[in-house]
Prior knowledge:
Keywords: Mitochondrion, NADP, Oxidoreductase, Peroxisome
Structural class: alpha/beta
Helix content: 40-55%
Strand content: 5-15%
CATH class of the largest domain: Alpha Beta
Number of helices: 16
CATH superfamily of the largest domain: NAD(P)-binding Rossmann-like Domain
GO molecular function, one term: oxidoreductase activity
Order of helices and strands: EHEHEHEHEHHEHHEHHHHHEEEEHHEH
Radius of gyration: 24 Å
Oligomer: single chain
CATH topology of the largest domain: Rossmann fold
CATH architecture of the largest domain: 3-Layer(aba) Sandwich
Protein name: Hydroxysteroid dehydrogenase-like protein 2
Distance between the termini: 54 Å
Number of domains: 2
Shape: elongated
Organism: Vidua macroura (Pin-tailed whydah)
Domain SCP2: 329-418
Number of strands: 12
Amino acid sequence: KLAGCTLFITGASRGIGKAIALKAAKDGANIVIAAKTAEPHPTLPGTIYTAAEEIEAAGGKALPCIVNVREEQQIINAVEKAVKTFGGIDILVNNASAISLTGTLETATKKVNLMMDVNVRGTYLTSKACLPYLRKSKNPHILNLSPPMNLNPMWFKNHCAYTISKYGMSMCVLGMAEEFRGEVAVNALWPKTAIHTAAMDMLGGAGIEKQCRKTDILADAAYCILTKPKTFTGNFIIDEVLLREEGVKDFDVYAIAPGHPLMPDFFLDVEIDTTAVKQEGYGTAKEEKKLIRSQQEGADAAKAKTESAVAMPSGPVAETFRVIQGAVTEEYVRSTQGVFQFELSGDGGGTWYIDLKTKGGSAGFGKPPLTADVVMSMSSADFVKMFTGKFKPTLAFMTGRLRIKGNMALAIKLEKMLSQLNSKL
Length: 425
């Protein structure tokens, strides 16, 4: 269906962009690989040239172009080269994206600029550069890898800048679909579950892939969209929902570890975690008050116990910290160099800490001996599940059940340490 069509795909040297390129290449499509990795990256696989080899091996024609979407002239040059090489552009896939899952005070200005420049501005400028050629195509499409706009505050509170930037891509769909209705189809595609890419490995740490699907599911969903007529426009599509409508029944083929629980992706409310939040206009104030009240109760209870000469509360939380204290080694301290504070609500709640900065390290009840680098707030029940391997920190964070303030890189280091400690806990 896509034989002879020219696809301009940003960020196509690896991951989702490359998967969409390879799917189209099997039909004999022309692929413009518009990405910035020309030299091998120390930790990330693939360059525009290795991707080009794979695309040609799959049956397509490839044009690798060095494009940093933050640089408008690089976009324009690549578009002109694509038109000169293949005679036009039929499809644009805005896949390039930057991510930093950090709070407002913890997000460096250069990170804010990066996300806004790549996600919003890059998508807008690439669309602008391609549109004059897309309008000349018989069945033109723009496809943005961006989510439906969910205004539940849960998706803003932990990573406001990232959310704004991804919704900016979605607003490009909203506006351009209407502006070019009848001329160019403009749609958004988003995964229902986490997708296993190099970026997800960095965010989730070791073992995260078992909770992910392969990039193939997005490639198949993108193919369905891009082969529809241009009247199919202005849609915010979830991969699994579309494929079910198309008759796909076996989704195990997309799983990295079939049968293993899958992690839901950002911006999609999950019934089990958000039912209470959805009520009463998301019930934000109510939920926050409940959390603050339970944290206060936990803190008051802890204070009362301390005053009555009880050194440390008992129960699952105290037992978990006792095991952590026994497991802390000089190696953990040397490799981590961070102090973690936990504000826990519910049974055994209050303030707890793990000090992996001071020589020898320590863990226990109360404020840490040094100012915390990372403060994590969650229920004590979720904390115990997290530290015994029954609840992934990444999933807890993505679903709003874990709030993180401070150094996100250190938070990820702690998760890696957890995976090593799970057998003892």
